[in-house]
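Can't paste images in this forum, so I'm doing it all in text. The chain is below; anyone willing to post the predicted structure tokens underneath?
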Amino acid sequence: MKVLIMAGGYATRLWPITKDNPKALLPVGDRVILDYILEKTKELDMEVYISTNRFFAKYFESYAEDKGVELLVEDTLHEEEKLGTIGALKLAIDELGLDDYLVIAGDNLFSFSLNEFLKHYSGKPLIAVYDVGDFELAKRYGVVVLEENRVIDFQEKPAEPKSTLISTGVYAFPKEIMARIDEYLKNGNRDSPGYFIQWLLSDGVDIYAYKFDNYWYDIGSSDSYLEALRTLLKESHIEEIQISPYSKIIPPVVIKKGARILGRSMIGPYAYIGENCVIDSSDVSDSIIFRNTIIRNSTIWRSIIDEKCEIRNLELKKSLVGGHAKIQRGD
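Text version of the structure:
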């Protein structure tokens, strides 16, 4: 079996912060999303590959080399050209050969052990499922109905979900199922694995589910991104910074090197402050601030601010600010 981490999407739902940054490499606490996934693959002793696109390949090259994993690069540069998840699986087969594959979405953070997941793999397709506990929320995902651990119904993004149990981004596919991807791609949706699961089920293929609890985050929105930060940031990580004696840090926080915390500022809890940021006489909590951003005389709560921004004299709540923005209210 080979492990294939899918990181070829353009993450349009999180634009503008993902316009020039691959979602799988966004920070969550003191690590990036992909770090959490790769840590879970270590116990498997399998070959690990990261699938991405040509536009983002440059961001992954040094990362993959450092982690000892290989890159598969699809030849696309724009959202409208992308192969989609199933198209990328076809590319993997062409380049790596037909095999059993453990497929993991590169924007998913999950609590379970992959080793435990594969203990339930019997050579039939296996999907990881999670109860989101809300029918409105379930409409965004592939909804699963189970009979014990066997999938008896699957609806991709249904208007009226039959359950709140949804398919997450972890799948085990045997090679005989991988061999059917060509057949599926003649008419099937290339992007969402849910439609492939739906197609297999309608063709009489037995599909099984591994149900897990605790936590799961699909980093597809600013809310889910910030919730993941709250769950996974357990302790503070503060690098070499400058901090005013009048400022206060409420853990847990991450503050990267070169940051300057000036005046009467309050940082935290659950704040990520990127490299070389300046936070002056401001409060920042439940927020992610990317590198080289300046915040003065402002309050930032449950917001994400991209790099090289300048925010002055503002109160920002539940906001998403793109890179290089300058926003201020008059003194």
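The two ends are 61 Å apart (CA to CA). The chain has two domains: 2-232, 237-328.
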